[in-house]
Amino acid sequence: METGGTEDFEQPIISKDVDGEETKDIQKGESHSYHINIKLPQNISGYESIKQIDRIGLLL
Fold first, then answer.
1. How would you label 31-52 residue by residue, b for 16+ Cβ within 10 Å and e otherwise?
2. 3-state DSSP call for residue 6?
3. Taking Cα atoms as reference points, which of 58, 55, 59 lies closest to residue 16?
4. Contact assessment for residue 38 and residue 14, using Cβ atoms and an 8 Å cutoff
5. Residue 18, class by beta-carbon neighbours within 10 Å (0-12 exposed, 13-18 middle, 19+ buried)?
6. Nearest 10 degrees: Cα torsion 13, 40, 53, 29
7. What span, in angstroms and rounded, lies between the C-alpha atoms of 23 and 11?
8. Each residue of 5-55: pLDDT tens digit?
9. What residue spans carry the region label Disordered (predicted)?
C-alpha cells in the first residue's frame, strides 16, 4: 500500500539569510538582500514538483 505523502521522501534542507547573515539588525528604509537556499536530496526522482512559500513576518 502506497501512502503517497511527503513522509516517503527525504526532505530538502532550507536555510535563509539577510545579506549573508542568519540574523541582522536593520533600519527602516534600508535595502537588503533576503535569500532562501534550498538543498534538494540527491534522489528527487519521486518528486512531481517542489514549491517553496515563505511568509515574511509583519514586523519586517
1. eeeeeeeeeeeeeeeeeeeeee
2. helix
3. 55
4. yes
5. middle
6. 70
7. 24
8. 556 678 889 999 999 998 888 888 899 998 999 999 888 887 888 888 888
9. 1-30
Distance separating alpha carbons of residues 18 and 25, to the nearest angstrom: 10
In degrees and rounded to multiples of 5, residue 34 shows phi and psi of -110, 125
- Give one DSSP letter per residue of 11-59, joined into a string: PPEEEEEETTBSS----TT----EEEEEE--S--TT-S---------TT
Length of the chain: 60
Q: Is 7 helix (H, G, I), strand (E, B) or coil?
A: helix
Enter the pTM of the model: 0.60
